[in-house]
Amino acid sequence: MPIMPTTQPLTFSVTWLNATTSVDLWTTLAQTLLPPYVNTCRWFAGKARQQTGFAIRTVHTLPLPDESVSYLLILEASYADGIPENYLLPVSFITEQQTLDPALLLADIPEKGRLGEITLNGQTGLLIDAIYDERFRQALFTAIYHNQMLSQTEGQLTFHRGKGLEEGDEKLTSRVLPVDSSNSAMTFGDKYFLKLYRKLFQETNPEVDMVAFLTDESGFANIPAFGGSIVWQQSESPDITLGMVQRMVPNEKDSWMQTGDYLNDFLYGVPNRMFAIREDVFDKVELLGRRTGELHCALYKPSAETAFAPEPFTDEYRQFLIRRFEDLLERRYALLIDNYTQLDPQAQRLAWVFMEAKEMIDTFIDDFRTRPLDSLRIRIHGDYHLGQVLATTNDFVIIDFEGEPESSITERKIKHSPLKDVAGMIRSYHYAVSAKLFNSAETEDIEPDHLQRVSDRWFYLIRDTFLDAYLDVFGAPHPLFKNNSEINFLLLIYLLEKAVYELGYEISYRPSWVKIPLKGIIDVVREIEKIRLSDGNVVPDVPMLQTGILQTK
Q1: How many CB atoms lie within 10 A of CB 361?
Q2: Could you tell me how many helices (H) and strands (E) the chain has, helices first?
Q3: Which of 173, 391, 470, 474 is most buried by its number of CB atoms within 10 A?
Q4: What are the beta bridge partners of residue 89?
Q5: If you average pLDDT over residues 247-252, what whole number do you get?
Q6: Are the beta carbons of 465 and 457 closer than 8 angstroms?
Q7: Are residues 488 and 346 in the same domain?
Q8: Pair (279, 222) in one structural domain
């Protein structure tokens, strides 16, 4: 559908208050003002795709405190290839008379919040993204505070209040955070954080499900507490999450930055062949291990409803994981072959050992297909790394439960062993030390193989400290983990999957970092070889790991 140019304000006979069902208004806006505006928005993910048109499929009405209204538009973006996407765009209409209200000063509305001028029933005004309207923000927060339910032409908007929203906090000053991201963020009284989801999916957002469960059902304290949610409900369709409120958390930095600070201290000794890790580093790593274990204990609830009840390792789950993993491996082997000559000598040696270990990895995957496993699966964080943990003065707060960014919403809700999260954090520690040691001016004259040995020593100490503290939370035995043998086996599955996934990104965007995931893969394959030997299931046709090539003179 062609985009119509606009010069003079678009004119419509309908009033703003009665615009809900105005087909002319919404159809025209979808062809004129909205396409250029939406393509400037950080939250719109379709900029690089060939767009064929926009349409406003649903219009929700939100009454405002001054008896005006804002509309929550469900905007459909269509493309030449692929299925359409739905986005949430709330809008307000500001007339010159209304700008006399101190809460509606035009100077406070940034350019990126202005859609354009229109004239409704003889009254000209500015159409804006409603997040920049104080009345809209207050209406959302009040509706959540009072657990309101607003009937709409299509279903209803249900506002649910969580335990994290305290009594007496109904009227708080609000502001829009100036951070451009895939969602919009508002704060209330510098105490609560409201995230408005822009790209919508045909089911509830996993982050809201997780945070609500941890706050309201399990009482887990080390997350920003769940304050409430906004959900669009329809009788014969899955619920769609539009927004969520959480408590704000005062923090110093995320754990990636904190770990970087610790590594700076470590780094200064490396050129002088000094190996020193401060005692408080181990204390922090142990604490994060415990908090991670406590998170998974909070998510383990045998009495929970189906969405959160523990499940066994079914054939269906194994097939899902194996299918995804084998596809990932095939693509990574191809990438390595195509880019092998561009790698540095150290990375080439690691790549060669990885490719030579293909049969051993295939045998390991086959073992996972049939090996008896009595451990259990639960909902997990799903994208767990140091950047997802905020460091407070004496503790940690875990954030961002949306799951793997590249997975579908349905896939993000699949239950895994909690060791998948553990693998993510272990890989994050490996990245932290490798990136610091291999990319610092202080170490640029040090022989790479020596740097690798120093990096390994730091990483193994930190990994074991984290893992020991984590497992101590559960005690033995625990239903989530049958025994140490299963723990080791499953951890290797998830570590290998994670490192192979990382490899693709580094080959494509940071070739000098390829050695980091490759070293992680080789470490895992070494452990796989130990399992083969201890199980006594050595397949004669599968060669042993060719680590001799890693040795240099």
Answers
A1: 21
A2: 14, 19
A3: 470
A4: 73
A5: 83
A6: no
A7: yes
A8: no
Domain membership of residue 59 as a residue range: 10-131
Any domain includes 379: yes
Q: Is 550 part of any domain? A: no
The confidence score (pLDDT) of residue 53 equals 95
Give CA separation, 491 vs 38, 222, 258, 498, 528, in Å: 43, 24, 25, 11, 11
Within 10 angstroms of residue 145's Cβ, the number of other Cβ atoms is 22
Secondary structure of residue 474 in the 3-state scheme: helix
8 Å CB contact between 113 and 129: yes
- What is the reported pLDDT for 290? 98
Same domain, 378 and 479: yes
List pLDDT tens digits, range 185-218. Answer: 999 999 999 999 999 988 888 999 999 999 999 9
Structure letter (DSSP) for residue 212: H
Residue of 172, 254, 145, 242 whose CA lies nearest to 203: 242
Query: pTM for this one?
Result: 0.86
The secondary structure of 45-78 as a DSSP string is: TTTTS-EEEEEEEEEEEEE-TTS-EEEEEEEEEE
The pLDDT value given to residue 231: 97
CA distances from 399 to 40, 250, 328, 391 (A): 28, 13, 27, 11
Domain end residue (candidates: 131, 147, 177): 131
171 and 52 within one domain = no
CB 391 within 8 A of CB 254: yes
Mean pLDDT for the chain?
Answer: 91
Q: Is residue 80 part of a domain?
A: yes
Residue 13 DSSP label: S
Domain count, the chain: 3
pLDDT surpassing 50 at residue 5: no
Clarify whether residues 257 and 237 are in a common domain. no
Rounded distance between C-alpha atoms, residue 71 and residue 428, angstroms: 42
Q: What is the CATH number of the domain that holds 153?
A: 3.30.200
Instruction: List Cβ neighbours of 367 (8 Å cut-off, separation of 6 or more).
Output: 537
> Are residue 126 and residue 149 in the same domain, yes or no?
no
Residue 121 lies in a domain: yes
Model pLDDT for residues 250-297, shown as the tens digit of each residue? 877 788 899 999 898 898 888 888 898 999 999 999 999 999 999 999
Q: Residue 36 corresponds to which tokens in the numbers above?
A: 């250029």
Q: With beta carbons less than 8 A apart as the criterion, state whether 51 and 76 touch.
A: no
Q: Which run of H or of E encompasses 523?
A: helix 515-535
Who contacts 335 (Cβ-Cβ below 8 Å, separation ≥6)? 503, 504, 507, 508
Question: What pLDDT digit, counting tens, does each position of 316-354 carry?
Answer: 999 999 999 999 999 999 999 999 999 988 899 999 999
Q: Rounded to whole angstroms, how far apart are CA atoms 192 and 171?
A: 12
- N- to C-terminal Cα separation, the chain: 66
User: Mind listing the pLDDT tens digit for each residue in 71-85?
Assistant: 999 999 999 998 999
Shared domain for 40 and 184, answered yes or no, is: no
**pLDDT score of 541:** 63
Question: Which residue is it, tokens 């703003």?
Answer: 16
Which one is predicted more confidently, 181 or 525? Answer: 525
Specify whether 127 is located in the same domain as 143: no
Among the candidates 223, 247, 271, a domain finishes at 247
Parallel, antiparallel, or unpaired for β 199-200 and 253-254? unpaired
